[in-house]
Each structure stands twice: as structure tokens, then as C-alpha cells.
Protein: TRAM domain-containing protein
Organism: Herpetosiphon geysericola
Amino acid sequence: MGNQMNDFEWPRELQTTIDGLAQGGDGVGRYAGRPVFVAAALPGEQVRVRLTERRNGWARGVLLEPPSNPAAERVTPPCPVYQRCGGCDWQHQTIESQRQAKQTILAEQLRFVAQTDQAEVAVTAAAEPWHYRSVARVHIDGRQVGFYAAGGRQIVEFEQCLIIDPRLNTAIERLKPLLPLVGLREISLRLSTTDGTIHGHLLGQGQSGWRSWARRWLAADKTIAGVSAETREGWMALAGAEYLYEQLGNVRLRITPTSFFQANVERARAVLQQIEQFLPLNNTTRLLDGFCGVGTFLLPLAHKIGHGWGIEEHPAAIRDAQASAKANQLTNVTLKTGKVEAILPQLKQQFDLAIVDPPRRGVEPVALNALIAAEPTMIAYVSCHPGTLARDIKILQAGGYSIQHAQPYDFFPQTSHVESLVLLSKV
Ligand SMILES: C[S@@+](CC[C@H](N)C(=O)[O-])C[C@H]1O[C@@H](n2cnc3c(N)ncnc32)[C@H](O)[C@@H]1O
């Protein structure tokens, strides 16, 4: 328990009424004026809570029993390992209320952190609530295969995960009889939604026997197109195809096993389409894609612009983007390896339009200031964390930008993760 020296004495258990949902997914109640974050609790519910973390200004806890007055949005989670597996924290509420909550969370972050009332948050753009993930990262111990338990490293086995693509469930079932494999701790399986092939990436203490095991896996399951392993230097191919490919717009993107690529590819396509509609691209446009990954947004837009710049810190992802640019005959892109905060200030390049899609920690202030200095007329900010998004928007607003459109995209139904697209334009 994360107790701290307190001047406020929290009880072990308490009763409260939930009045909202916090970024991060918990219900929020109050005790002696201080917020109490309660897992799996919904607004309006009166709950009895056992505290698991007590701080001076706030506490966190879990339900002692089902709420006495369950919210109308409460549903029975369909997954048999719900709350044991650390995967889906919001299966206890309807998909409609999840989406409404994501909208509220984004609106509140923009209001309270970015301090803007000007932003109207559009209705959450939604897609398939189940079986949407094209990546599954399973942990392995001997013959045990599963996901980590909530808040721990214990493996929770499952028969059919309800949020991964059914083809990944089948591949995991076919994999089990081939185990154990000495030194194997984890496999990341990625499905190409374009051609249905799967790539398996092995993590652990690699052994000489892994290569022949990989060949056996390929022979046992025809959907597995390639197997690779993590190494100290990066990665190595063990058997079959080295790369996976996904079609986005009119571009076929190459994806190395260690490169970031979106886990919900259908939503990534929807965001790309929306960016394309928002940004007034033409054949003289100078477009920046900060945090470009394998070129997910930049390359499909390249045929519509004058010149594009992509910046990405992971060398393998930039090599993928370069290979895809070449294979798709896109000669009007400059791809730079390195941190956006280091490269952008040095580029001294003006842009007409910009896309940024940073990790959860958001964009460094030095990079935001360099972006402002580059004077794009519009910025499309794709975010996986509403808090850091709102913090960064505050800086962009001070730099002369205002929000034109803000919308959550439901990339991860059944979870509290909020992905959003915000369009800003120069005032
Ligand atoms: C959320 S992903 C987006 C990638 C790409 N836009 C896509 O949709 O596939 C963020 C990317 O930023 C990269 N990254 C993280 N921190 C970075 C930094 N400081 N500078 C440049 N790239 C960074 C990661 O390697 C990752 O590829």
C-alpha cells in the first residue's frame, strides 16, 4: 500500500457516491472533501470501498461489494477473466456510456488544463466494440500462455480474448501445443488486416533452438508468415518473412517487428481520412509529420503534397518509412531519425501544415516552440493521452493557435484509453 506520512487520517474502508469518471477510468467519489478513485464504479452509484492507496489529498480503492444502486449503464462483463486480466478496465459499462465518458474526459481536460471553453468536443467517432485489436502480446511461462494480471506479473490464461482479432485467438490456440520453448517469456503477434498474415516476435533469453522452433511454428500454422526475435542490438529474423505489410490509403507500408504500428488499424485509417479532409493539402504543401513511425500518415498523404518531412526516433521505423517510400515511388519525402525536440529546432524549415502524433507523454515544450516558429497554418494533433494533449494545446494556444475541431476516436473500446484528434489553426 502506497501510504505517505499524512496529516489527514483516512479510514480503511469508506462509503461514497460516485459523481464522475476520471481520466484513467476510475469512478470518482469524495470523502471529507477529498477525491477517492474507485475502480469499476460508475457515476451515481453509492459504493462501499476498501482503500488500497492513501495520500494526503486523495485515495484509491476497490469495491467491497456490488453497488447498492447499480447505474443504468452497468452491464455484466462478458469476459470470464474480466478484472483478473489487466486488459479491459471498462467492460462493466455499456459501449455508449464508455464513448460518452471519453467525450466528457476530453472536454474536461481541454476546459481545465488547456483552459479553453472555445472547444466543442464532437461525438466520439466509434467502430467495432469487440475483436478490434490486430496485436496481441502474450506472456509465457512453460506451457502457460496469457496476459498479465491487473497490476502484476502473474499470467492470466484465457480461451478467447474478446478484443483481439479472432485470427489471433486461433493462432494462439495453435501455438500452445508447441510449448514450452526454453528461454521464451513473451510473444508479440501482429496481424496484417490487409492480407491476413501474422508475424510472431519472440522475447526472452534467446537460445540456439529458437530458429528450429520458429520453423516448426511456421509449418504448424499457415497463417504465420514470419517469426523474429528481440536481440540486444534490435531484432533478428528467425524464419519466414522478415516484415509485415499494411495498406493505408494507396500506400503499402512495411512494418518491422520492433516498429510502432497502430493496434486498431481500422481506426488509424479513419483518422487518416479525417486528417486528409481537414488539412487543405495541395501540390505545393510543405507538410511535417512529427513522430511519424513507419510513415503511417505522411506516406499515404505524400502524393497530394509538394514535400513532406517525417521525424521519428526509432531507427527501424524510419528504415521502414524509407523502404515504403521507395517501394511506392514517393520521392518527395525527407525522413529524419532522431527526437523531434532535437531535430525540429535545427531544421529551420517553414511548414504549411503539420501532424503530430506523440506517445503518451506528449510533445516537449522545446519541440512545440519549434513547431510554432515553423508557422504551419494548421496542426492536426493525434493524441493517446488527453491530459498531455491539453497541456500541449495550452502552449500552442499561447503561440497563436486555436482549436477548430476536437474529437475522441474510440481506438480501444472496453478500456478507458482515450485517443483523440484535435485540429488547430493559426488565428
Ligand atoms: C503514437 S506513435 C505514432 C506513430 C505513427 N504516427 C503511427 O500512427 O503509426 C509515436 C511514435 O513516436 C516515436 N517517438 C517517441 N518519442 C519520440 C521523440 N521524442 N521524437 C521522435 N519520435 C518519438 C515512437 O517511436 C513512435 O513511433
